[in-house]
């Protein structure tokens, strides 16, 4: 079954929004470097600057995890719930970044919400991939044969 652009448009939009967010974080770290007088290439020496820097680095470290989770959940499950989880993740990352620059402890609510979003996307992927595997290798369409029968939709 070919994938059409309409089937991935929301995923693309969320991906671009997240890329923009990462760029915004980089600009904020650059501004903090000037504000706290941390000269290139140093990344330490001022605790406040280090929190900006760590918030950005952690966001970059999570980028491949988020991107893979977003796209696989959108392709194997459905783009709408995957995109919703992606938008909530972007919100969580913003909350994480803003919390981290205040204090190390203030980063936790955003971090935990972001991890929950990734777990939800991973769960969507597992459901979708599991359904595809059962349909492909056992010839059973769970959605048609069982869910519609019991849920009456």
Automatic annotation (TrEMBL):
Lipid bilayer topology: Multi-pass membrane protein
Record GO biological process: leukotriene biosynthetic process
Listed GO MF terms: enzyme activator activity; glutathione peroxidase activity; glutathione transferase activity
Transmembrane parts of this sequence: 70-92, 113-134
Organism domain of life: Eukaryota
Gene3D superfamilies hit by this protein: Membrane associated eicosanoid/glutathione metabolism-like domain
InterPro entries membership: 5_LipOase_AP, MAPEG, MAPEG-like_dom_sf, Membr-assoc_MAPEG
Keywords per UniProt: Endoplasmic reticulum, Leukotriene biosynthesis, Membrane, Transmembrane, Transmembrane helix
Broad class of where this protein is predominantly found: endoplasmic reticulum
Entry keyword Ribosomal protein: no
Localization (cell): Endoplasmic reticulum membrane
A cellular component term, taken from the record's GO annotations: endoplasmic reticulum membrane
Pfam family, one: MAPEG
Presence of the UniProt keyword Disulfide bond in the record: no
UniProt protein name: Microsomal glutathione S-transferase 2-like
Organism encoding this protein: Crassostrea virginica
Recorded name of the encoding gene: LOC111126505
């Amino acid at each position: 079954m070919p994938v059409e652009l309409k089937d991935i448009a929301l995923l693309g939009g969320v991906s671009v929004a997240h890329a923009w967010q990462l760029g915004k974080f980089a600009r904020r770290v650059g501004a903090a470097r000037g504000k706290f007088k941390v000269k290139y290439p140093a990344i330490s020496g001022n605790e406040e600057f280090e929190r900006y820097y760590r918030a950005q680095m952690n966001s970059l470290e999570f980028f491949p995890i988020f991107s893979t989770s977003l796209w696989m959940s959108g392709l194997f499950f459905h783009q709408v719930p995957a995109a919703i989880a992606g938008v909530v993740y972007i919100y969580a990352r913003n909350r994480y970044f803003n919390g981290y620059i205040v204090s190390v402890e203030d980063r936790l609510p955003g971090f935990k919400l972001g991890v929950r979003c990734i777990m939800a996307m991973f769960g969507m992927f597992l459901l979708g991939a599991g359904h595809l595997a059962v349909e492909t290798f056992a010839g059973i369409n769970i959605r048609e044969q069982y869910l519609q029968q019991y849920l009456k939709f």
